[in-house]
Every structure is written in structure tokens, then in C-alpha cells.
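Dear colleague,

Thank you for sharing your sequence with our group. We've completed the structure prediction you requested, and as agreed, I am returning the results in plain text so they can be pasted directly into your records. Please verify that the sequence below matches your submission; if there's any discrepancy, let me know and we will rerun it promptly.
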Amino acid sequence: MYRKSSLLKYISVIIAVILALSGSMSIAQHSSLRQESGEPEEPELIGNHRASADVSNLSRGLVRVRYNQTESPKKLKVIIEKDEERYIYDLDPRGEFEPFPLQMGNGKYSLKVLADVVDNRYATIFGTPLDVELVDEKAPFLSAHQLVKFDENSQAVELAKQLTQNAETEHEKIEAICKYIVNNITYDCDKAKTVKPGYLPDCDEILEVEKGICFDYASLLAAMLRSLDIPAKLVTGYVAPDYLYHAWNEVYVEGTGWIRVTRFYSAYKEGEGWVRMDPTFAAGMKGSSRGSQFIGDDSNYRKKLEY
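Please find the predicted C-alpha cells below.
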């Protein structure tokens, strides 16, 4: 009898250990998709005396680029291309690595760094091909970069944790973040009139002043959701009725079930994971059913770029 009891205890301990290890592995695999903009443990550098790229995180949909020279040109650009798609970014000349997304799927990319030589005429100072094989197609939409900027010390990250501390499901987390942004951030008409080309959102500043333009809304929502390991795109394109340039979001919802956060979601189609969300219009149409109707109509949106 004693032997039987001891054997049962031994088996119980083994099962408990296996379950614990299984759980920790699952958590590690899930969280490893997200890569913040800090220094990687083992950088893998390529480049020349003028510019360098850290290619250690290509599988997570991220490349980090740095300008190496002490003299600062007027402007620097990073161009990332794949097939017929092209993304152009500004690069800070102060010699610090900046992360840029590789969000066009698996395959061969082209990376170029260009410097303004004179009168907005650019010359390539560094270029390289990149072979990208993502660990997950959603990985680029979990990382921080210059358009969706956050780290563990960001106010936006801390607020996201606070707002979702009692949430039991991913859907509840999305709803909590969305409702906060809609109810607390107002549209800044003055900023919309004066914003200059090359503007980049500062999520913590947006939370501080409690107002912003469509780019700010979309960047803040993406940053807060990504900090919770929820894939979120920042999308730019054109919106009805006059098809002016606009920014909105697409958020990945696991499974094929449908949830509704009033004034946020478009119609969720069976089997599709990405759901359009437009916090700018949702905030501007609070208390009206027109918000959800407008956001839910695909014909109102023409996507151009996604980050």
C-alpha cells in the first residue's frame, strides 16, 4: 500500500512538472514574437563606414539601421523594397540604431540608405539585399519602430497593463484599450492644419496632452495593443467621402468568432483574422450609430501602406 501511494505521488509530481514546462514554453513562444526597439543581445552587423544595418532580427520582421559618420547630412532616407512595394523612411543622423519593419512577407528585400547631397538630390551610401523568413506572418506587427514607438518604460505600455489587469480574454483587452482612447483622446484640428512632412507620433505625449491627429490615434492604439502581444497594424491610405489621406488600424483577432466593440469594428467575416478599427472616427462619432456603419463599410477605405 505504501509503495502504491509513493508511486502515485511520484507520477503526480512528474505530471505537474511536465504541465509547468509546457505552459512556460507556450508563454515563451508567444512573447518571443514581439521585439522592442532596444539593443538585441547579439547584433549581426553589415555595412560600411557610412551606414550599417543590424540583421539579427530579420525573422521577427525587423531591421535596425544606423548612420556611421560624424558629419550630419541635411537629410537621410531608408528605402525598403520587395517586389513592387516600396517603403521610404527618414533616418536620424545622430548615429543611433533605428528599427524599421519588414512587413511585406517572406522573400527577398532590398535595403538602401540614401543621403541628401544637394537640393533634395539623394545618393545611395549603403545598400544590401535581405533574405527574410518570418517566424510568424504577424511578427512585424508586434514590434516597436519609429511609427509605432514604445518600450517597457513607456507610459503607454504601463497604461495598457493597468487598463487590462482584470481582463480575462484578448477580446476584453482590445475593448478596454479602445474604449480608453475613444473616451480620452480628442481630435486636434490645429495640429492637423500645421503638421509637417516627416512627423512621427509620440505616444506618451499624446496621452499627456490628450489630443492628436489620425496618425496619433492609430500609432497609440497599435503601440498599446502590441505591448500586450496583440498584433496590430498601423494603416495609411484614403478615406471617403473626399478620399483624403488618413490613418487607421487593423487588429488581429484569434479564431473565427465575432465580438463587437461599439463604434470600432468593421464586419467580421468568417475565417478572417484582421479587423479594421478607426479610433479617429470612433472618437469623433461617439454616441452615434453612424460610426460603426462608416467603419464597417469597406468602400469607405482605400489602403495604401501598412506598418
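Summary note from our side: The chain has two domains: 45-135, 155-306.

Kind regards,
the structure core
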